[in-house]
Write a structure and sequence with these properties.
The chain has 15 helices and ten strands. With 451 residues, it is of the alpha+beta class. The structure holds fe (ii) ion (FE2).
Length: 451
């Protein structure tokens, strides 16, 4: 318990008022000093008798009175006041602790829902290690296909407690089967622990459950024997169950995302089938775009947008008539105007798909030029979305190096010279620089166009 700060207590008006009325009723004049000898109440005057004021067995101050018969009553009343205040303070501290725990949980729930499965597992481990004594925390999830437990993440000062992959037997199997968390403070006395817990002596183990389904198990353990309490178990299980929902959502989201990207790719293939001269173009534009983005070091969110936008950049060609799209001779001005509409047409198609709103600027603006002479909006410089500036470089380079029925593609080195020449006019010089970085590290190379 915290040592009572008597000085602080006597700064409070309600306490002074209370002692005023007590001393008045008792007809006694007292003086109170703290341990350092500072007068907190009354004045020394002729007071000759003195008693200590104690709280939780510690002397926190002294009370002086002139009348020896009443000082004992004054001291015990003061002890009572001080003790009560201390208890209040302890209660407040406990409430504050609970509040801290709650906000931490809230923060945990908030953050955890924005992550992928591995990130959630790492986040969970960090929080478990902060709150519960453990030398190792391992998160293992069941593989839906093989039924084996796979180690997703591990933390703590001792590693390699759980195997990378294992059958759901022993204590982990038992916890998954029963759906109930367990504390085993003496692993050496529990047969189930033999093969699962390696060098740990005490463990706390919780199933990972969501929507009534077992997803896996989380184990925290200590090398030296330790007595995990019911409080530890409660807190551990709360964290694990929050993480379980987030992991379940993340798994679902990840599989939806995979299905979505597959659909997007099918859509892109449909465009290529209509425009047979661009065989493999979409894939190469995506490859080049990602290679450029990696040199630029764009954010994970922008990278995701870039992958989708580069695959779908010409989706609007669905709306262009066959005779224009498949024409092998020079386009008339009118036909070129029609081709140009594939950017806005692409935007119109994507406007119906909520998940793709973020990539619309990349699609609409991939034919804008850095000098403002592009289409459809004549945007200039940084007004053009970064994704569009990257696709413009990747798209043009591939168009230059690919064969068309009416012309042969430019040799790789000639196309590189052309890119260098157009940096700062047609293209963002920064993106062209990154493009050359990708050429240097062979992510963009002459073999891309073969096969
Ligand atoms: Fe295009």
């Amino acid at each position: 318990m915290a040592i009572c700060n008597l000085k602080k207590l006597f700064l409070r008006k309600d306490i002074i008022k209370l002692i005023d009325s007590l001393t008045k009723n008792m007809g006694v004049s007292i003086c109170i000093e703290d341990n350092a000898g500072a007068t907190l109440y009354g004045s020394g005057g002729n007071n000759r008798v003195c008693l200590p004021i104690t709280a939780s067995g510690q002397t926190v101050g002294l009370v002086y009175a002139h009348d020896g018969s009443k000082i004992a009553a004054s001291a015990s009343l003061l002890n009572y006041i001080v003790e009560t205040e201390m208890q209040k303070k302890a209660l407040a501290a406990e409430a504050l602790d609970k509040y801290g725990e709650l906000t931490m949980l809230y923060d945990f729930v908030e953050k955890v829902n924005a992550f992928n499965v591995k990130e959630i597992a790492d986040f969970l481990i960090r929080h478990v290690l902060e709150q519960i004594k453990a030398d190792n925390v391992s998160v293992m999830l069941l593989d839906e296909v093989t039924g084996l437990l796979k180690l997703v993440a591990e933390g703590g000062s001792v590693r390699n407690i759980a195997r990378a992959q294992m059958s759901a037997i022993g204590i982990v199997g038992s916890v998954i089967k029963s759906g109930k968390a367990e504390i085993i403070n003496d692993c050496h006395a529990d047969q189930r622990c033999e093969m699962d817990t390696g060098s740990v002596s005490s463990i706390i183990c919780s199933p990972v459950k969501a929507r009534e389904k077992a997803l896996g198990v989380v184990i925290a353990g200590t090398v030296e024997p330790y007595n995990y309490s019911a409080d530890d178990l409660h807190f551990f299980c709360t964290l694990v169950s929050q993480a379980a929902f987030a992991m379940d959502n993340a798994r679902l989201y990840e599989s939806l995302k995979k299905a979505f990207i597959k659909t997007v790719n099918t859509l892109a293939e449909t465009i290529e089938k209509r425009d047979p001269y661009t065989g493999g173009h979409t894939k190469r534009v995506m490859t080049y775009s990602i290679a450029i983005a990696e040199i630029l070091g764009i954010s994970a969110g922008d990278r995701e947008r870039l992958v989708l936008a580069s695959v779908l950049h010409d989706i609007g060609k669905i709306g262009i008539s066959d005779h224009v799209l498949r024409k092998t001779t020079k386009l008339t001005d009118e036909e070129f105007e029609e081709i140009k509409t594939h950017t806005t047409c692409g935007q119109e198609i994507l406007a119906y798909i909520e998940e793709l709103q973020g990539i619309i600027p990349g699609i609409r603006s991939h034919h804008e030029r850095f000098d403002g002479r592009g289409y459809p909006d004549k945007l200039k410089g940084l007004e053009i979305d970064l994704i569009a500036r990257i696709i413009a470089v990747a798209d043009t380079f591939d168009a230059m190096t690919s064969d068309r029925p009416y012309r042969k593609g430019l040799p790789f080195d000639t196309a590189l010279e052309e890119m260098r020449r157009c940096a700062g006019t047609q293209f963002d010089a920064m993106v062209v620089e990154a493009f050359f970085g990708a050429v240097e590290n062979h992510r963009i190379n002459p073999e891309n166009n073969e096969g």
